[in-house]
From TrEMBL:
The active site is at 157 (proton donor/acceptor). This is D-alanyl-D-alanine dipeptidase. Pfam families: Peptidase_M15. Binds 1 zinc ion per subunit. It comes from Roseomonas elaeocarpi. Gene3D superfamilies: 3.30.1380.10.
Amino acid sequence: MLVPIREEDGVLLDLRYATADNLAGRPIFQRAVALLLPEARERLLHASRMAIALGYRLKVFDAFRPIEAQWVLWHAVEDKRFVSDPRLGGLHPRGAAVDLTLVEAASGRELPMGTAFDAVEEASAHGRTDIPVEDQRNRALLLGLMTAAGWDHYRLEWWHYQLPDARRYPALHASAVPDGPM
């Protein structure tokens, strides 16, 4: 069962796939709602509390992504290293992955990370030393917070984190999104 993440939980939401500001160039979600498995939600909120203690907030770009939306991205992205094959389920369609960044709590400014969210390029990978040092530190801070909260990372995308055992959960379709207010 998927559960919502709300700004009242202490995280910021900028659900890019509910807008045209994404790799597909058009909204691919019918509803702007961030959902995760209960275990993933708890780990995200743990990371959020740690970030807040340091003067930051987490900003979520994507969480659960139905298989139907995964197909849209699959067709939109040429470099398949940056999008999971929907025939294999992916991790977002399981409700076990989240895409996010860090924001300064006081100013609301996103920390620079060397590339934009969803930048389909080599510079998006963890451990890059060819981006500004401040951006390397910001990526390391996000990685540290998420790892300390029990998340695993995808090495090619600084913004993507998943439960270490994410594949044990089934991939879900849009029908898994509950009707009504969240």
